[in-house]
Amino acid sequence: MLLILFATMSKRIFYPLLLLFIPLIGMRITDEIKWSPFDFIMMGFLLTILGAGINFVINYTKNFENRTLYIGILVLIFLLIWAELSVGIFDSPIAGN
Prior knowledge:
Elements: H1 2-8, H2 21-29, H3 37-60, H4 64-86
């Protein structure tokens, strides 16, 4: 099942990875941005999962309102996980500094 899902995915799920150039360039400009290779790997994983989720919703949901709702929920979950990993808004064991 998982193999079928990966076979039907398009290259566009990897386009959000281009956002990783923002902190990479920012690290070259200022010392205020300090990302480790682990940070880039985790954000790349999160962005790839988000891109795959959005691609799945676009391919399998025909109703525009439902599509918008599902993509909005995916983006909200992504932002909550990102905030938890970066600053720890929920004070969980995976919280960042």
